[in-house]
Each structure stands twice: as C-alpha cells, then as structure tokens.
C-alpha cells in the first residue's frame, strides 16, 4: 500500500533526492570514523520502509529506483536496462582492482582492506593517477 506524501518525512526525502542526483548510492550502513563502527543509515531505512512510494515518485520524475538486495543499497537510473549502473559498476570494479594491486604490491594482506580501521590512507590515494597509468592494460 502506497503511503501519502504527508506521511513521508520531507527532509529525509529531500536528502535522498539530493544524494541520488549527485550520483551517489544510499547504503544500509555507513562507517563513522569517530565511533569506529558502522551505523544504520536513516535514509536507507526511509526508502526501505516506503519502497512503493519512492518507486512511484521516481517513476513520475523519469527515474527508476533500483534496490540491490545483496549489496543493501539504493540508486537511481534513467535506463530500465540499467546501462548506467553497468558502466558505473565497471568503473568501480576497475578502481577496486587498482587498489587491490597497489595493496598487494606494497606487501599487505588483502583481508586488511576489509577492516575499516586499517584500510588505505590519504597518501595511497595521492598516487592514484600514477596507479591508473601503471596498471592500465591494452
């Protein structure tokens, strides 16, 4: 059953829209560096609890609201075929591969990348342009 607009939190709805139109995804949790733990994302909860409403809303303004169950995130696209998502996924996978190669070249265990308190520091990202050129294939 679709809920009415008056039942939806307007500020959260606006934040959701602003997040999506800036090309970002909304994940179930986000990492809080101060608490050093994952925290539930209230925007994700709002989307999840009112999925039918938001699905219709985004259809009305020319988007498709996509929900990835396995990855627990939402994003919008303009294409039902999700070509945009495939392109973005490929770009993200390429960056992750470059990061993994860099990490292994430095002699670190890949399992450490999944640990939020270890991860990469800013200096690793400062060499990202060099890494892209170094690991570019073809």
**Fraction of residues in helices?**
40-55%
Query: In whole angstroms, how far apart are the ends?
Result: 52 Å
Order of helices and strands: HEEEHHEEHHH
Largest sheet: 3 strands, antiparallel
Number of strands: 5
Please identify the structural class as seen in this structure: alpha+beta
Shape: elongated
β-strand percent reads 5-15%
**Distinct helical segment count:** 6
As laid out across the biggest beta sheet, the strand order is 1-5-4
Could you provide a short overview of the structure?
The protein is an alpha+beta fold and about 140 residues long. It is built from six helices and five strands; from the N terminus they run αβββααββααα.
Outline the structure in words.
- The protein is of the alpha+beta class.
- Helix content is 48%, strand content 14%.
- It contains 6 helices and 5 strands, in the order H-E-E-E-H-H-E-E-H-H-H.
- It has helices at residues 10-21, 42-49, 51-60, 83-105, 122-126, 128-135; strands at 26-27, 29-32, 37-40, 64-68, 73-77.
- The strands form 2 sheets. A 3-stranded antiparallel beta sheet has the order 1-5-4.
- It is elongated, with a radius of gyration of 18 Å.
- 9% of the residues are buried.
Name some characteristics of this structure.
single chain; 138 residues; alpha+beta; three-stranded antiparallel β-sheet; two-stranded antiparallel ribbon; 48% helix
């Amino acid at each position: 059953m679709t809920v009415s607009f008056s039942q939806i939190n307007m500020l959260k709805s606006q934040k959701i829209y602003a997040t999506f139109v800036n090309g970002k995804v909304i994940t179930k949790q986000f990492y809080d560096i101060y608490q050093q733990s994952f925290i539930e994302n209230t925007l994700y909860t709002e989307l999840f609890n009112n999925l039918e409403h938001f699905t219709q809303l985004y259809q009305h303004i020319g988007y498709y609201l996509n929900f990835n169950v396995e990855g627990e995130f939402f994003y919008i696209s303009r294409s039902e075929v999700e070509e945009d998502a495939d392109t973005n996924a490929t770009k993200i996978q390429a960056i992750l591969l470059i990061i993994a190669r860099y990490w292994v070249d430095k002699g670190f265990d890949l399992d450490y990348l999944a640990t939020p308190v270890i991860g990469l520091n800013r200096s690793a990202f400062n060499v990202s342009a060099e890494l892209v050129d170094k690991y570019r294939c073809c």
